[in-house]
Amino acid sequence: MLMIIMKIGIVVTFALLFFSVFFYINNLIIKRKKAAEEKKKVKIQEEDYARVEKGEEEEKLEPGMEKLSEKAKQKYFNFKEVFPKYTYKKDKLLKMAIGVVLFFLLTFFLNFVFGIIGFIIGRNILNMISDHIVKKRINKFELQLVDGLTLIANALKAGASFSQAVEVMVKETRPPLATEFSRFLKETRVGASVEGALDNLSRRGRSEELKIAVVSINIARQAGGNLSEILLHTADTIRERERIKGKIESLTSQGKMSGMVVGALPLGLAMILYVVDPIMMDPLFHSFIGQMVMLVVLLMEFVGFKWINKIVNIDI
Questions:
Q1: What share of the chain is helix, strand, coil (3-state, %, to 5)?
Q2: Which of 55, 160, 177, 216 has the highest local Cβ count within 10 Å?
Q3: Continuous H helices in 190-287
Q4: How would you class 62 by CB atoms within 10 Å of its CB: exposed for 0-12, middle for 13-18, buried for 19 or more?
Q5: Crossing angle, helix 177-189 and helix 162-172, to 10 degrees?
Q6: Of 296, 297, 294, which Cα lies nearest the Cα of 285?
Q7: 69-81 pLDDT, tens per residue?
Q8: pTM above the 0.70 mark?
């Protein structure tokens, strides 16, 4: 018992020391960045204006992001949407810090192989968190979109132009819908075409329902027709899609819960047995064969989780 407490104390000391150095370096980087931002402010504003004017507003790549894959860039921008002050340097430092801490913990208590696995998991935790946050944001956006399209259609029936109708909708709704459509209005006010601003909105939103609405609006504006009626029909279509999604969610919820319970059962049982009889479980953690068995179990857990997730996630 005393040895375990000593090990925990040593690990906590190393972790505190590591985080102290991490935050000190992070503060230095922030100060230097603020000084550099003041010099580049005018240039960035001119570049943003020129980009929006062409209808090509895209996320600005920070230094060091050029070599990243498109998927990695998208995960970073997902996290930045929720935390606007988040930067790529902070992203790299935070991922490295989490990975290093998990590496030392698992290496200290188990072995080097588990330390490597902990480092890989730690490097990807933020990506998983950002995916979850953005998925919730998109779901909220899609729920608000039906009411937003109905507001635009009613404003058009009252005689407002499309831009005026969108402005009315922005005033009557809440984020994230109001935030995205207010950016659309800003783009049109600085000279971007409505079609280009709508395409930018669709790319930022990453929602199938929003793509349906944007395509309907662009076709109606180009080919003519009653835009208010088209928007009402589009809202009905999106509402029906959301109803079907909710029904599928309720039907697959039992499968998702079964997967979570079955996946957590071996890990929970191992923890209970370790507390009840640590001597019996000691070979599982400190012998080569036991550690290989744990690796196989973790691999099978991961495959099973992905398999069940693939079965219960149904695209409409």
A1: 85, 0, 15
A2: 177
A3: 194-205, 208-223, 227-276, 278-286
A4: middle
A5: 150
A6: 294
A7: 666 666 666 666 6
A8: no
